[in-house]
Q: What sequence folds into this?
């Protein structure tokens, strides 16, 4: 991981709220002192916001990625649910496969999207770890 991020300053690090303890353990073992923001991808305030940000980046063609079979499969096997306020979220209970890679992409987009419309270089890049 250190080699992948050499020369980069980590502006933010997010994870699924259900994986928070595992992520903290991993970072401790890697001797990395980053602040971790635990986020949800289910229907609700932060999960719905991250899903909408992911959708917006894809729709506006601002999210450019190499072809990724894991992500394509996760998207095809996922379902969205909405809470009583209409907030979208990944429905882990009714998804037909492993959607961890999609959850990671949604969280990353949720954290990064506010910086996409700024004129200056945000000074970071999105990478998938693990």
A:
């Amino acid at each position: 991981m250190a080699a992948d991020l050499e020369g980069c300053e980590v502006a933010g690090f997010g994870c699924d709220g259900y994986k928070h303890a595992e992520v903290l353990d991993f970072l401790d073992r890697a001797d990395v002192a980053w602040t971790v923001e635990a986020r949800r991808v289910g229907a609700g305030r932060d999960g719905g916001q991250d899903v909408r940000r992911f959708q917006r980046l894809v729709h506006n063609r601002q999210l450019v990625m190499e072809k990724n079979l894991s992500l394509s499969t996760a998207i095809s096997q996922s379902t969205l649910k909405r809470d009583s306020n209409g907030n979208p979220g990944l429905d882990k209970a009714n998804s037909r496969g492993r959607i961890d890679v999609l959850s990671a992409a949604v969280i990353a987009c949720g954290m990064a999207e506010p910086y996409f419309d700024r004129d200056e270089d945000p000074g970071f890049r999105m990478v998938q770890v693990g």
